Amino acid sequence: MRRIGGAQIRNIGTLGGNIANGSPIGDMPPLLIAAGASLVLQKGVAERVIPLEDYFVDYGRQDLRPGEFIHSIIVPKIGPDQHYFAYKISKRPQSDISALCMAMSFDLKDGVCANVRIAYGGMAATPKRAANAEAALENQPWSEQNARKAMLALGKDFTPISDMRASKSYRLQVAQNLILKAWLESKAEEPIHVLEADI
Ligand SMILES: Cc1cc2nc3c(=O)[nH]c(=O)nc-3n(C[C@H](O)[C@H](O)[C@H](O)COP(=O)(O)OP(=O)(O)OC[C@H]3O[C@@H](n4cnc5c(N)ncnc54)[C@H](O)[C@@H]3O)c2cc1C
């Protein structure tokens, strides 16, 4: 969150706006999707609750009916066995739009992954879960070998585009490498990368 915009943007921007604008490169949707968040949508006294990933239908199209607004965002508390990683890739640490953004969550019991959720921004027309990469890890030991299997599976999840921020091959390679980064970070005694200047 410290890498979203600059201090001015963080002081005034809202989570609701970050989701509602439907951007494929908004930073919070992948983080919240990986965390299993849901949206409470309200119109008058009528409310409905949807998983956040279902809100993003297609580029520029969200599941928001006329008159509805995002009333609240429900984020499950992190569980005792849950591991969570989030990475933003951009050319500057602050005040820069993501080339891509990734978040990953899973429960680890006896070394085996469950409830794997991996979400990316900047890899498709909407923020999106990586179903094949998730399946490669679900019910599997959290090992480098399986992290690399998930990296390979990611090639089936996304066909990213090239634009001024990154080429499609760079996007896919970095997206894959972020899974490896999560693996390495999970084994490191200290976080691999901390933005001291932002703390
Ligand atoms: C200089 C600059 C840097 C930025 N950097 C980043 C960045 O690093 N990462 C990033 O993700 N974004 C960035 N942004 C984009 C933006 O600031 C954020 O997405 C911010 O969170 C938007 O929130 P807001 O409250 O300002 O939304 P607004 O801009 O006020 O609203 C966005 C849209 O959503 C609608 N909306 C707002 N709230 C709701 C609601 N509750 N229910 C329904 N519709 C709603 C509005 O009507 C509007 O159409 C940047 C913007 C600027 C100008």
Word description of this protein:
The protein is of the alpha+beta class and 199 residues long. Helices cover 32% and strands 27% of the residues. The protein is built from seven helices and nine strands; from the N terminus they run αααββαβββββββααα. The termini are close together. The structure holds flavin-adenine dinucleotide (FAD). Flavin-adenine dinucleotide binds at residues 4-5, 9, 13-14, 16-18, 20-21, 26-27, 69-70, 95, 97. Flavin-adenine dinucleotide (FAD) binds at residues 4-5, 9, 13-14, 16-18, 20-21, 26-27, 69-70, 95, 97.
Compact overview of the structure:
This protein has 199 residues and is an alpha+beta fold. It has 2 domains: 7-74, Uridine Diphospho-n-acetylenolpyruvylglucosamine Reductase, domain 3; 82-187, CO dehydrogenase flavoprotein, C-terminal domain (Enolase-like, domain 1, 2-Layer Sandwich), CATH 3.30.390.50.
